[in-house]
Amino acid sequence: MIRPLLKNHPKPDSIEWVVCDKETYMAVEDLLTRDVTFFEPFMVDQFYSDEDFKELKEICLSHNLKNLDYNQHLQKWEEEIELPQHLVDKAINRIRELVGTDDIHHGYYFYTHHQITEDGRKPRLPLHIDFSPGSYFIGLHISSNRDWPCVFKDQIFTIKENQAIIAQTEFDYHWRPSWNSDDPNEYYAVLLFHLRHKNHWSIPNNDPSQDRDPKVNERFPNLGPDFVYSEVHDNYKVQQRKNFDPIYIERHAESDLPPIPWDERPTAEDAAKEKRIKNIGAN
Ligand SMILES: [Fe+2]
C-alpha cells in the first residue's frame, strides 16, 4: 500500500485540485515531511523491560475510568496520565534505536481504554490519517481481555502485553476492524505515544529549539500546536484524502484484510466534540 505522498500517486495528472491548489499542497507536504525518517510500520516484542512494564501497567490500571476523559469522537476513554519521567525517556530512547535516528522527541501520550459504554457506545477506529502530531508513533499494549487488531497501511497487527506497534500515524492510513461484540465486559487498553522531530510543524516559529529553513517559517508564519486547526492544514488534509482514498480502497479490495467499517464513522456532531490536544510538549 502506498504512502499518501504526491510522489507516490500513480496518476498525478488526473488529480482534481478542488480543495487546495497544487502549489500550496506541495508546500504543506514538504513542511510535514521534511526531516522525517520514513519507515514501514512494524511490531516490537518486549518493548519495556519486565520490571518497567510492570510499573507502567500498575500506574495505568490504577486509574478509574470515571476520572478519565471520554472521547466521543472515537468512543474511548483517554487521558494524558502522569508517568514517571524514566518511563517516558525509555520509550523515546527505544524508538530512537529502533528507527535509527536521534531526532525523535516528546510530543504527548495518552492512556486509552476501549470498552462499550453504559449507553451502548462501541469502540471504533475508522480509516484515517492523523491530524495530530505523529511523525513517530508508539502504540503499546497495556492490558485486555480480547484482541482488537489494528491495520497500518496494508499490514494487520495483533499485539499482546508489552508489545508495541511503531508507525507514522501522521502519514499513513490506519484503522481497526469492527469491535464486533456486544459484551460490555470486554476491554482493550493501550498507551499511545505521539512523538515528533525537532522541526515539526507543531513547534512554534519563534521557539529556539527549531532550526527550520527560514523560508519555511516565512511561508508558514503560524506554525505551532494550533497550525493543525488552520485552513491551510485542513485543506491539505481534505485534498490528501480526495487524492488517495480511492487508491487505498481499491488496493484494500484486492487484499486479504478485514472489511473497513465504513458505518462506524463518527457523526458530524461527534466530530465537533473532538477535544483539542492540550499541553503538547509539556514533558
Ligand atoms: Fe490515528
Textual characterization of the structure:
With 283 residues, the chain is α+β, with helices and mostly antiparallel strands. The chain has a single domain, classed as Jelly Rolls, CATH 2.60.120.10. The protein has helices spanning 22-33, 50-61, 85-99, 214-219, 231-253, 268-272, and strands at residues 42-44, 69-71, 76-79, 105-115, 136-144, 150-152, 155-157, 164-167, 174-175, 187-196. The chain has a 7-stranded antiparallel sheet with strand order 1-8-5-10-4-3-2. It has a 3-stranded antiparallel sheet with strand order 7-6-9, with no helix packed on it. Helix 1 packs across helix 5. The structure holds fe (ii) ion (FE2). Fe (ii) ion is lined by residues 128, 130, 169, 174. Residues 128, 130, 169, 174 line the site of fe (ii) ion.
**Assembly state here?**
single chain
Per DSSP, the total helix count is 6
Q: Quickly name the level 1 CATH class.
A: Mainly Beta
Question: How many strands in all?
Answer: 10
The number of domains: 1
Give me the Rg, rounded: 19 Å
Q: Which labels suit this protein?
A:
283 residues; alpha+beta; Jelly Rolls; 7-stranded antiparallel beta sheet; 3-stranded antiparallel beta sheet; 6 helices; 10 strands; globular; disordered C terminus; binds fe (ii) ion
Task: Give a summary of the structure in a few sentences.
This protein is of the alpha+beta class and 283 residues long. The chain contains 6 helices and 10 strands, in the order αβαββαβββββββααα. The protein has a single domain (6-272), classed as Jelly Rolls.
Please describe the topology of this protein:
Layout: H1 22-33, E1 42-44, H2 50-61, E2 69-71, E3 76-79, H3 85-99, E4 105-115, E5 136-144, E6 150-152, E7 155-157, E8 164-167, E9 174-175, E10 187-196, H4 214-219, H5 231-253, H6 268-272
Antiparallel strand pairs: 1-8, 2-3, 3-4, 4-10, 5-8, 5-10, 6-7, 6-9
Helix pairs in contact: 1-5
Bound molecules: fe (ii) ion.
